[in-house]
Amino acid sequence: MTDKPPTALDNGLWAGLRRLTAARIGLQRTGASLATKPLLDFKLAHARARDAVHEPLDEARLIADLGGLGTAVMEVASAAEDRQRYLMRPDLGRRLAPDANAALAAHAGDFDVVFVVTDGLSARAVQTHAQPTLASVLPILHAEGWRVAPIVVVRHGRVAIGDAVAALLRADCVVVLIGERPGLTAPDSMGAYLTWQPGPQTTDAERNCVSNIRPDGFGYADAAHKLAHLLRAMRARRVSGVQLKDDSDRLAVGATIEVSPPDAGSKP
Question: The pTM is what?
């Protein structure tokens, strides 16, 4: 039994659905295999995702971009000496390099929040989306009188690196902007992980996550609104993670939406 070629009606149905999603649906087939075009598209997307994992962060350009935001910018590194070790040893990406402790401690103060920008599993994501996201959220916080610590750029960092940064700078809240694991439709998706008063024993259940920050996902202005709202709630209730519900969309949709902590299996 052979597959029948798609009819005009079939193609029309799938075309309408494809306008609603970037997912690969209704792909054309030849016998038991994908047709040449969707197969090549899939291989190209897979190659872009692999490249994103290994692509290095252009720290100089990122720091120059962040420097125009009116907030001081610092640069430190994790305990992972290079990209290969970072990928092979996730634990090293959660710890600061020895010389980073003194550098950060010298700038300690009584801060309300610190923003940490790190490459994670897609340097391209933070290279592209960190600056416009911060450009949207920082004016909101400054207008409300938040004491914002210097922005800290960390090379080869993972989410938990923000815990040590916040402790050394004496910041109550930390927001880690990090490149998420690339997918076949989004090799440049950035996530934001928020934690209230993190420490050595902080777990993933104590974090909130705003994911897929990019123009084709969760836009910069919406992400800034969400981050500011969560930060206000964290400071008012002195909790984060599973204990904190995000009701920022309540007026728009008439419901309370919970922002769940990151999945430990998919976290950078």
Answer: 0.82
